[in-house]
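We were asked to recover a plausible sequence for a given structure. The inputs and outputs are reproduced exactly as logged, with field labels preserved.

PROBLEM: sequence recovery
POSITIONS: 399
GIVEN STRUCTURE:
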C-alpha cells in the first residue's frame, strides 16, 4: 500500500476545505438543516457543477470523474469536518453503487449521468430500522429483514402493468427530498421468498414521505409509506441483491469512517483552541497536565481512526483486498464519540448548552451509531466474517 496521496487528491482536499470553511460555519449548517430539503441547495449545486463530487467515483462512461473510492473518502473527510449536510452519502454512497452493480444497461445509462451531474439525488429505503443489517454491517443480510412476508415490511407484487409495492420504511436518509428511491422489498411468497430492489420516482402516486425528527439534523431522515405504488425492478430477478448490498455496506462504512474522522479531528482542533484561551486559577486550562493527557488520548484515537479509514478506502479501491470498512467505521465512531464528549466537557458551562457547536459533533456521533452501529456489533460482525473465533479442528463449541 502506498500511503502517499497524489497531487490531484491533495487538491481535492484543499479545495473542499476552503469551500467548507467559507460556506459551512456552524450557523450555516444549522440554517441548512432547517430548510425543507434539509441541506443547502446552492452548496450542493457548487459541489456538483464545479467539483463533480457526486460522480467522483463513477466511471467516465457514466458521466463521472473516473476516480477511485479514495478520492470520495477524502472528500467525505473534509465535508465531515464541517458536518456539511449534503445528499452525498445517500446518493453517491448508497444509491449510485447499487445502480451500477445491479441495474440494466438502460437503467445505468438513464440514471447515473444525472446522478453524476447532481441533477438527481437518490437514496436506499429499507423496511423498519434495519439499514445496518441490510448492508451486512452488524449481521448477515441473508435473512428476512425486508419483511419476510410479514406485516411491517415492504411487499412487492407483480401485476399486469408491472410491479406494485406495499409497506413502510423508517429512517430513510434524505427520503423526503430524494428524487429517486431504491426500495428493498420482499417478493416471491414464503416458498420462494427473496429480496429485490425497486426504483420508485418521487412523484409516484401512492407514495407518502414524511420527514422525521432525527438525533442528527445534518442527516435528515424520513418515513416512506408505499400504498400500491408503481415501481420498476432494478436489474433482473436473478441479481445478487444481498451480495451487492454487502459490498455497498463496506464502501459506505468506509465513507462514514472518513466523515467521522474529519468530524473528530475538527472537534479536537476546536477544543484545543478553546483550552488555550480559557483561564482558570490565573492560567490557561490547557496548561493543566490532566487536560493535556485527555486531549492527547483523543489525538491518538483520531490518528488511529484516520489510518484505519485510509486503509479501508485503499482496500475498497484495490481488487482482491480484504474489505475492512466495518472495522474502520467502528474505530472512527469511537474516536468521534470520545472527541465530541471531551469537547462538551472541556468547554465547561458553555459546552453543556444545547446551542453550542460541540453538540453538533456529539449528535453526529450518536446518530451515526444509531443508524449504522453500534460499535460493538460492527466489531463482532467483522470478527465473524474473518472467522476470528472459529473453532479449531477437534474442538466443540457449547451452545
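RECOVERED SEQUENCE:
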Amino acid at each position: 500500500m502506498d500511503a502517499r496521496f497524489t497531487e490531484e487528491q491533495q487538491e481535492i482536499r484543499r479545495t473542499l476545505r476552503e469551500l467548507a470553511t467559507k460556506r459551512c460555519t456552524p450557523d450555516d449548517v444549522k440554517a441548512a438543516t432547517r430548510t425543507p430539503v434539509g441541506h443547502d441547495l446552492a452548496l450542493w449545486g457548487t459541489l456538483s457543477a464545479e467539483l463533480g463530487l457526486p460522480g467522483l467515483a463513477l466511471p467516465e462512461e457514466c458521466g463521472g470523474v473516473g476516480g477511485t473510492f479514495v478520492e470520495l473518502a477524502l472528500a467525505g473527510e473534509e465535508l465531515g469536518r464541517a458536518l456539511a449536510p449534503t445528499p452525498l452519502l445517500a446518493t453517491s454512497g448508497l444509491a449510485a453503487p447499487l445502480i451500477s452493480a445491479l441495474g440494466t444497461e438502460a437503467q445505468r445509462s438513464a440514471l447515473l449521468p444525472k446522478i453524476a451531474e447532481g441533477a438527481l439525488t437518490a437514496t436506499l429505503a429499507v423496511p423498519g430500522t434495519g439499514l445496518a443489517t441490510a448492508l451486512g454491517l452488524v449481521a448477515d443480510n441473508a435473512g428476512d429483514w425486508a419483511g419476510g412476508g410479514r406485516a411491517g415490511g415492504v411487499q412487492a407484487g407483480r401485476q399486469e402493468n408491472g410491479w406494485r409495492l406495499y409497506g413502510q420504511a423508517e429512517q430513510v436518509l434524505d427520503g423526503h427530498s430524494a428524487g429517486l428511491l431504491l426500495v428493498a422489498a420482499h417478493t416471491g411468497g414464503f416458498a420462494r421468498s427473496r429480496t429485490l430492489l425497486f426504483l420508485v420516482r418521487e412523484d409516484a402516486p401512492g407514495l407518502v414521505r414524511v420527514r422525521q425528527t432525527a438525533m442528527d439534523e445534518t442527516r435528515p431522515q424520513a418515513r416512506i409509506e408505499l400504498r400500491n405504488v408503481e415501481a420498476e425492478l432494478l436489474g433482473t430477478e436473478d441479481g445478487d441483491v444481498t451480495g451487492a448490498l454487502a459490498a455497498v455496506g463496506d464502501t459506505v462504512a468506509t465513507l462514514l469512517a472518513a466523515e467521522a474522522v474529519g468530524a473528530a479531528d475538527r472537534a479536537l482542533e476546536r477544543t484545543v483552541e478553546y483550552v488555550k484561551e480559557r483561564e482558570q486559577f490565573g492560567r490557561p486550562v490547557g496548561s493543566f497536565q490532566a487536560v493535556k493527557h485527555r486531549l492527547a488520548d483523543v489525538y491518538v484515537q483520531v490518528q488511529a481512526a484516520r489510518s484505519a479509514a485510509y486503509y479501508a478506502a485503499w482496500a475498497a479501491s484495490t481488487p482482491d483486498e480484504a474489505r475492512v470498512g466495518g472495522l474502520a467505521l467502528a474505530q472512527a465512531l469511537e474516536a468521534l464519540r470520545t472527541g465530541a464528549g471531551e469537547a462538551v466537557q472541556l468547554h465547561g458551562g458553555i459546552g453543556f448548552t444545547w446551542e453550542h457547536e460541540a453538540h453538533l459533533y456529539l449528535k453526529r456521533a450518536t446518530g451515526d451509531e444509531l443508524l449504522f452501529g453500534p460499535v460493538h456489533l460492527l466489531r463482532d460482525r467483522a470478527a465473524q466474517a474473518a472467522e476470528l473465533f472459529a473453532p479449531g479442528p477437534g474442538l466443540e463449541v457449547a451452545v
